[in-house]
Design a protein that fits this description.
This protein is α+β, with helices and mostly antiparallel strands. Helices cover 47% and strands 15% of the residues. The chain has helices at residues 2-22, 28-60, 62-67, 106-110, 121-131, 136-143, 150-159, 236-250, 267-270, 285-298, 304-313, 317-329, 334-349, 351-359, 367-379, 388-402, 418-421, 447-458, and strands at residues 70-83, 86-97, 102-104, 178-189, 201-210, 213-215, 221-223, 227-229, 258-263, 279-283. A 5-stranded mixed β-sheet has the order 8-5-4-9-10, sandwiched between helices. It has a 3-stranded antiparallel β-sheet with strand order 1-2-3, sandwiched between helices. Helix 1 packs antiparallel against helix 2 (28-60), helix 5 crosses helix 6 and helix 10 runs antiparallel to helix 13 (334-349). InterPro entries: UPF0236.
Length: 465
């Protein structure tokens, strides 16, 4: 095997030298793709040869495989799999495992390839990574595998094992005076079963935990050490449980003085983190202004909003109720009356949070911005319908990535069978004599001859031994 590797390396050096010296087009945009293609081609052929070599090793090592209960039943069964090097095609043998009473293909298990799998784990991980940001079509184009379908991208998402990864970063436990929690939900269009016509929405709740907000310019603010959380089943109780666990693990709760929850008044948000005595509910400024603007449009008295804001600052709820009731009675048509009732109900039901927004020195809320940036940009901003399972997993993976983590092959199962791998003894001493006196078609000063001769003199093993 080592001789084959050396021969392939020699051939690769020669081909690269031809491109660099004899090619008419010498601009980088022409040279680099050709060299990359040569490297990928050589690497692909090397991998195929290596698999063939390992398969032969297992077949010939009768004593070891029989001691493990493996009996050869069929030779050279063809298989192909798409990898980052291209389509890898190889042949492997089929054995009967008398210990576990089943047929197995040792090479597939050593390589971590499951039955009927046609795309390698690294490609699937790359597809899922891109799918968190882009459409299925664009994702496969960016990964460079146009030969597969959009359904294959979706299948990769559905097969991902998100329980293998933690959605947030774990830091050293630190003491902070206050935490700011931004909670809201995205409303995503989903597909009805059996392609039924009509609308169906799925609420995707999200909670973001931050240590505060700092100014980065006159008109811009930035959250400090923010981490986002979603639940793949959209269960708000489980979501708050995850948030609670994160706070307990990463912060000294005994030193925490205030835990501000910024939200729009949703009941699932009000019920969150109730066990914290430091908990302070603050109504989202965006929604407060929106409802006050509605009152301004409906009411004839232009000072009504100012009067209401004054009552909010003075925390005079009963007087505010009287003012709002008069506003509802003054509405002339049924539509305005209904709108006004909804506004009044919102203000009264969220009175404490609205008062806190006006009276406490807390930074402006960014709940809508977080939802828009993290979820809506991918799931609800464009006209599309999602499957519930796909939405759950992809929203989790998108948040995972937004939290500064990298999506890799850990999200897929594909562990190698160590017992079978040990059958193949690959760490053999490489013979470097092939490099000592090579015959070249180039002159003695050619770059390839200098490189190869230096490799022979230094006896450097560049293949891992």
């Amino acid at each position: 095997m080592e001789t084959i590797i050396q021969q392939y390396c020699l051939e690769l050096v020669k081909n690269i030298e031809k491109i660099l010296i004899f090619d008419e087009e010498q601009d980088l945009s022409s040279v680099c793709p050709k060299i990359l293609e040569e490297c990928k081609k050589t690497s692909k052929e090397l991998v195929e040869k290596h698999i063939e070599y390992m398969n032969e090793k297992i077949r010939k090592d009768k004593y070891t495989r029989k001691s493990k209960g493996l009996s050869l039943k069929e030779k050279n069964i063809s298989r192909s799999i798409l990898t980052c090097l291209g389509q890898i095609e190889y042949k492997r043998d089929n054995y009967y495992d008398s210990t576990n009473k089943k047929y197995i293909k040792p090479m597939d298990e050593i390589l971590g390839i499951k039955a009927y799998e046609r795309i390698s784990i690294d490609i699937k991980a790359a597809l899922v990574d891109k799918a968190t940001e882009y459409s299925y079509e664009k994702s496969k184009a960016l990964v460079g595998v146009d030969c597969i379908s959009r359904q294959s991208v979706r299948n990769a998402i559905l097969k991902s094992k998100i329980e293998n990864i933690s959605i947030c970063k774990n830091r050293e436990r630190k003491a902070v005076k206050e935490l700011h929690i931004f909670a809201d939900e995205d409303h995503v269009h989903t597909q009805k079963p059996n392609k039924e016509i009509g609308r169906k929405n799925q609420i995707v709740p999200m909670v973001s935990v931050s240590e505060g907000i700092k100014a980065i310019s006159k008109s811009r603010r930035k959250t400090i050490n923010i981490q986002h959380f979603v639940d793949k089943e959209f269960n708000t109780k489980d979501l708050w449980r995850i948030v609670d666990k994160y706070i307990q693990k990463n912060y000294d709760v005994g030193e925490l003085e205030k835990l501000y929850i910024h939200a729009d008044g949703g009941m699932w948000i009000k019920n969150g983190l109730e066990d914290y005595s430091q908990r302070v509910y603050v109504c989202d400024g965006f929604h407060v202004k929106k409802y006050l603007n509605t009152i301004r449009k409906i009411g004839d008295d232009k000072k009504i909003v100012k009067n209401l804001e004054k009552l909010i600052k003075e925390n005079k709820k009963e007087e505010a109720k009287v003012l709002l009731e008069e506003l509802v009675k003054s509405c002339e048509d049924e539509r305005s009356n209904k709108r006004c009732e909804n506004v009044c109900k919102y203000i009264i039901n969220n009175w404490e949070g609205i008062v806190n927004r006006y009276t406490l020195e807390v930074p402006g809320s960014c709940t809508e911005g977080q939802i828009s940036h993290v979820l809506s940009e991918r799931f609800s901003r464009h006209p599309m319908g999602w499957g519930k399972e796909t939405l759950g997993k992809l929203s989790y993976l998108r948040v995972y990535k937004k939290n500064g983590k990298k999506i890799d092959k850990r999200i897929f199962e594909g562990e190698k069978n160590k017992e079978l791998e040990n059958i193949v003894e690959r760490r053999e001493k490489i013979n470097w004599e092939i490099f000592d006196n090579p015959k070249f078609i180039f002159d003695e000063s050619s770059p390839s001859q200098k490189v190869v001769k230096s490799m022979g003199r230094m006896k450097i093993n560049c293949f891992g031994n």
